[in-house]
Each structure stands twice: as structure tokens, then as C-alpha cells.
Specification:
30% helix; globular; homodimer; six-stranded parallel β-sheet; Rossmann fold
Chain lengths: 259, 259
């Protein structure tokens, strides 16, 4: 297994850092290759702007078109090219981050915004009245797996099926489905540590053991079974789910998971 | 009306900039006060780190605790203090941004991550076994309204109730509910322009007219009726929605909207 860990926390002595360190040692001890993109340590530039596309950037800037041209001509900035190469190298990608305001920290969102360029992560394949690209299960990164490892300050019941924050599965859907499955990556069920701001030593030991177990079983864990776009479940060109495919009463994001 | 527009797009000649400019002129012509935080023009620092909390930042850094201390002692950085003051000044906040990877651009997420500090936007009010803070309808920013103005490259049906990307209401729920309603801000239904990458002049004219209409009716538009946390709908301390309050078959995020 070749694993890329994308790590997004400002504090090297944080719970997030402990979980990343544990992932590195656990995976390497099992004989796997591991690379880490520690975004804070790399001083990752989180903001998409014209500097990303060199002197040929158009004016006015058109992010999709400019990023696609720079990708195709090999003129993206070196930091973005390096991350795309790591993604192509890896068969498994772990994202380690704290849930801040129900989403990723800005530095990680900026990694996605800059690395997932047109022609690399979107705008791939035929776009016409009969096909809207190779995405949602196909694409540049098809065949790879991802695993979100997320720390959350609040308690688990707040994120349950009826919890006030919304179900954690739904809060992570825009990442699992919208960011990762879009260019073809399948996600394993997330690893989540709740109460992360006040974790006792015992609770950390329990979490660490559970994390090791998840890491050791990556190869045998089933991914979230999102529906693939181009295999009959969706009408063309609306890309609305065809009637009757979902379990009775299913709505919203859950429509896009195979029963 | 006192309106703060938080604008997040790298290109001053973009559709997003046109919509922000139109908002300024429309609101000012109607006699309202308007301030704009143009995050790219301000070179907004999007990344939470120890520099945000001055020489007294703890080591290891604890983002919640450190940001709360810095907030309470008035030692947050000047850029963050200025944005908090604008939020306190405004009665209405407009967010103008392109939907990138089903969420905000990193620079705007970083505005939230840095400005919505502990003791200002979260960690407000009693936290005990019988009450979990003043949030979701109460809090520092209660009584204010927000309006997301979002441009989207893809076509509208992809974001419909059965659309492959997920319903736009659900994709924006973590912003409307998780970020804005949490410290008390009520959101009006969003203004969304689809097909934004290839908008014809006619389509722009139609969108601009619709946007002006939305701006002129802010005061009379009903907000999304999210359930408030501390008014009987939720069990304590699980903060799970009490049984039977929702319409039959309702699940996921929609549970948290009053029927």
C-alpha cells in the first residue's frame, strides 16, 4: 500500500499530530510506504489566485480555464504539481484534520481548491448533451481509496441521526462525495474522535487503539457505496436520480448511496 | 439597514464582483449603509495559527482556549478585531462567493475560522449538564440576518432534490446552520446563479434583475426557520431532536427546520 497522509493542524503536539504519527508508524510497521503532506509545516499557500497560473494567466482570470491550461502545459506551480504527483503515486489517501465549523480548516480547503484543478480533478472526459464527464466514480483518481480521520470538540450525540449539528455522515458528504468521489476516489467510513478538546489519557488510549485497528484493516474495509454517475442510475442530462431506485422515504444526500 | 458584504473572489472583473458592486449600489440607492470586506483585496490571512493569539499563545497551542483568551483580553490581531466589529455593527451580512468543491473558497473559510473565535461565536453562555451554551438561535450575533449569494458553474438540475450533487439546501446547510445560526444569525433563502462559467449577457441581465429584487426585499423575506436549541425541541444533554416533532419521513438536516 502507498499512503499519502494530508495533515492539517497548526500544533505539532496536538491530538491530530499524534494520530498522524501513529498512522505513519503503524503503516510502516506493516510494510507500507507512507508520505505525509503536513500543510502547516509546508507553509501551504491556501488561496487560489492568478499567481497559480504563471505569466500566461488570462485577464480577467478564469479559474477553471486557467487551471486547466496550466495543468495541460505542465506550468502549474511546483507546490501544486508535487501534490498532484503524490496523489497519482498513492493508492490510499488519509486526511487528518479537526472539524472546524463543520468542515475542513481553511488550509486544507485551500489544498483542495488549488490541487484539484480543471482537467486533473474536474473537466475530465466528454461533456455533451449525452455525457457530463467522467466523475463520481470515474476520473483521474479512480481506483484509489480515502479515509478521513477527524477530531471533533463536541460530544457524539450532537452528531447522531437526530443530533442538533446534523448527522456526521451528512456533514462529511460534501467531502466524501463532492470532493473525493468526484475525481474517482472511494472513501472508507470516517474515523472520528469526539470530545477531542478534553480527551483524557484513557480516552486517548482507546482512540489510538481504534485508529490502529482501522489502519490495519484499510484493505478489507468496504467503502461508502456511492452511486456512480455513468452506469444507469441517473437521467441524462438532468443527472437526477431515476425514480424508484431508492429505499422508500430516502431523501437528500442518502439518495446517492446504493441501498 | 447596515449591511456588511463579505466578498471572496480573486478576480475584480468576475461575475462575483459584478454582483457585489450591484449590491452596493442597490442598497446605497435605497438609503442603506454598506461596508465591504473584499477578502482578496485585503490580502486576508486565511490560516489559524499561533500568530493570531500574540506572545501569550499557549504552547502547545489550544485554538479554542487561546482564541477565547485573546478575545476576552482584546488581544486578537487587528484584522480579526476589525471583522468582529463589522459583524457587531451590521444588521445584515451578505456573503458573495463562488461554490468551489461544494463549499466556500478557502479564503472565506479562513475568515470564518479566524473571526468566529471562542467566546465571540462559540463557547458563549452556560455549558453544563443542563445547558449547552447559547447557540443555534441565540448568541453574540442573534437578531442579525445573513444572505448567501453563490455562483455555481454547473447546471441547476444537478443541485435539485434528486440531483447528483445533492440538494443545494443541504450543501449549504453547514454554512446556514452550522456557521451562521450557531452564533445566532438567521439566514434568508440563498440567491444562486447556476451556469456561472458560461453566462450569456441576457442570462446576466436576468440574474442581475433577480439579485436587485432579492436585495430590495431583504427586510420582508422570511428566514429559513431553523429550530432554536434552547426552546424545548431538543433533549438535554444529548441535543437530539425529541421524537415526533418532524413531519413523517423527514430525516437528516431537514429535521432541524420547523415544518
Amino acid at each position: 500500500m502507498k499512503t499519502l497522509i494530508v495533515h492539517a493542524h497548526p500544533e505539532p503536539k496536538s491530538l491530530n499530530s499524534s494520530l498522524t504519527d501513529l498512522a505513519v508508524t503503524t503503516l510502516e510497521a506493516a510494510g507500507h510506504e507512507v508520505r505525509v503532506s503536513d500543510l502547516y509545516a509546508m507553509n501551504w499557500k491556501p488561496v487560489v489566485d492568478a499567481d497559480d497560473y504563471g505569466p500566461e494567466a488570462s485577464s480577467p482570470l478564469a479559474v477553471a480555464r486557467d487551471s486547466g491550461r496550466a495543468f495541460e502545459t505542465g506550468t502549474l506551480t511546483a507546490d501544486v504539481r508535487a501534490e498532484q504527483e503524490k496523489l497519482l503515486w498513492a493508492d490510499t489517501i488519509i486526511f487528518q484534520f479537526p472539524l472546524w465549523w463543520y468542515s475542513m480548516p481553511a488550509i486544507l480547503k485551500g489544498w483542495v481548491d488549488r490541487v484539484f484543478t480543471y482537467r486533473f480533478a474536474y473537466g475530465v472526459g466528454e461533456h455533451s448533451e449525452t455525457k457530463y464527464g467522467e466523475r463520481y466514480g470515474e476520473g483521474t483518481l479512480a481506483g484509489k481509496k480515502a479515509l478521513l480521520s477527524v477530531t471533533i470538540g463536541g460530544p457524539e450525540p450532537h452528531y447522531g441521526p437526530r443530533g442538533i449539528n446534523g448527522p456526521i455522515e451528512d456533514l462529511l458528504f460534501p467531502i466524501h462525495h463532492g470532493i473525493l468521489f468526484y475525481p474517482g476516489i472511494e472513501s472508507l467510513p470516517p474515523f472520528v474522535v469526539y470530545g477531542a478538546d478534553r480527551l483524557s489519557e484513557d480516552a486517548y488510549a482507546t482512540a489510538a487503539q481504534a485508529w490502529e485497528q482501522r489502519l490495519r484493516t484499510i484493505a478489507t474495509t468496504d467503502p461508502i457505496p456511492f452511486r456512480r454517475q455513468n452506469f444507469g442510475d441517473y437521467d441524462i442530462p438532468s443527472l437526477a436520480l431515476k425514480p424508484g431506485l431508492e429505499p422508500a422515504g430516502s431523501t437528500g444526500f442518502s439518495l446517492h448511496i446504493r441501498p
